[in-house]
Specification:
alpha+beta; 14-stranded antiparallel sheet; 14 strands; elongated
């Protein structure tokens, strides 16, 4: 992996045990700023890292980040990542010492590759291409739990439809898994409120129609998925969600359908 670092500044301060490191630099056309804090004069020190990487241009660095966790996602526009992490500095032997914290990231355009939608689904939602879904903007919020599980809430704004992905990945227990491999499980569907770009609406679950669930082993070092399983909801469940349980999205659904069919 290669990254272009045009400039880098750092500052370290230490006083009676506390250590503070701030840094800033230009990386791959974007700006990275952050701070690392820790206390070295305690028995079990932890560090607290916060950083923002804004407008990092597509390239090897962005590709490596997406390949490690979101296999099949390709950025066409700049990525912004905001992260905060807590972790022990000197864990005892055998302690997995997972990161904990939270953050979010955004990508201004890209593609998600996956399984093609069944024919019946494209008849209900004309113009829906799940084999290669192009998005103009995506926004993801994530939490890193002490157990090693990482939860994600993602929304994707597309030409006709908006998608959501909600789920988690966690340390893999498969015999063939490496130390960085993770087991993933996600629900994917349509989100008629994604244009609001709001974590509140995303977490409320309103305006959404689930389409399928996906599980797989993420081989991070290889950038591939293994043991992938995709299960689409049956047609009656989707139609029931659309027309019975989620009545507020019916008007939006018909507006999108009319637009797609009108452009064909």
């Amino acid at each position: 992996m290669e990254a272009t670092i045009d400039a880098l500044t750092t500052r370290v301060t230490a006083e009676y045990g506390p250590l503070n490191l701030t840094f800033a630099g230009l990386v791959d056309g974007g700006v990275v700023t952050g701070e690392l804090q820790t206390h070295l004069d305690v028995d079990d020190p932890m560090f607290y890292l916060t950083y923002e990487a804004r407008d990092i241009q597509p390239g090897a660095l962005v590709d490596a980040y997406l390949a490690a966790s979101f296999v099949g996602m390709k950025a066409a526009g700049p990525l912004t990542l905001i992260d905060e992490t807590y972790q022990r500095l000197r864990p005892p032997p055998g302690d997995p010492n997972y990161e904990s914290g939270r953050g979010e990231f955004m990508i201004s355009g890209g593609t998600i590759s996956g399984r093609a939608a069944p024919k019946w689904l494209t008849q209900v939602f004309p113009g829906l291409d799940l084999a290669s879904f192009d998005f103009t903007f995506m926004h993801a919020w994530f939490d890193k739990l002490p157990s090693g599980r990482q939860t994600h809430q993602m929304i994707f704004q597309g030409r006709y439809y908006n998608l959501y992905m909600i789920g988690f990945n966690e340390p893999a227990a498969a015999p063939e898994a490496g130390p960085k491999d993770r087991q993933m499980q996600y629900e994917v569907g349509l989100d008629f409120l994604a244009d609001f770009d709001s974590r509140y609406w995303a977490e409320s679950g309103q305006g959404r129609i689930p389409l399928f669930t996906k599980t797989a082993l993420v081989r991070s070092e290889l950038g591939v998925l293994e043991n992938e399983s995709v299960r689409f909801l049956p047609p009656q469940r989707i139609l029931e969600t659309l027309f019975v349980r989620n009545n507020p999205v019916v008007t939006a659904y018909h507006a999108v359908r009319k637009r797609v069919l009108g452009e064909r």
